[in-house]
Sequence to fold (179 residues):
Amino acid sequence: AYFPAIYTIELYNDDDSICHEFFHSTVPETSNDIGDFMHEGITLILNDEYYSRNLNTYQMGDDRVIYMKMLMETIGTDKVLEAYSKNDWRIIETELLKINPDSSIPNRIRELMDKYTEIFVANNFDRITANREAESVKNELAEIMIDYYETKYPNNEESVFYVYDAHFMQRVNWKFRKT
Fold:
């Protein structure tokens, strides 16, 4: 775990956690923080794509990774990584507003991400229980992300959102769709 207030990293007994916590430690503290949901999702992506030697990547398909991949495909990996490196939600918000000018939607995304984190923490970081309890939060977040994607790419032949499968080895169709 990384404790920014005292600039301390608590290490576990594996290389992946050392690198993972190091990624967390490189992000500055700001008043426009991107939130724990994004921090963790992007840190998992960075650790697994640029460091990990563990074949069981992305901690068994962590939802935060899935939504960060969705965001990366919608507004661009460069913008998501810029927001992460600067710890600035406004970068995400600005890119989303270019797709849909309704400012309430980026705010709702942030609320949903924060709600997921609250559920996760309330369940003592038990991802299985938290995922079950956060189902409506995840569904709403997916609907919003799909709407952004389809608005940005209206001529996409299949007009579907692509994400990575459970092991993130290949792209597959996102099965959840608004009707």
The chain has nine helices and four strands. The radius of gyration is 16 Å. The longest strand covers residues 162-164. The CA atoms of residues 57 and 167 lie 6 Å apart.
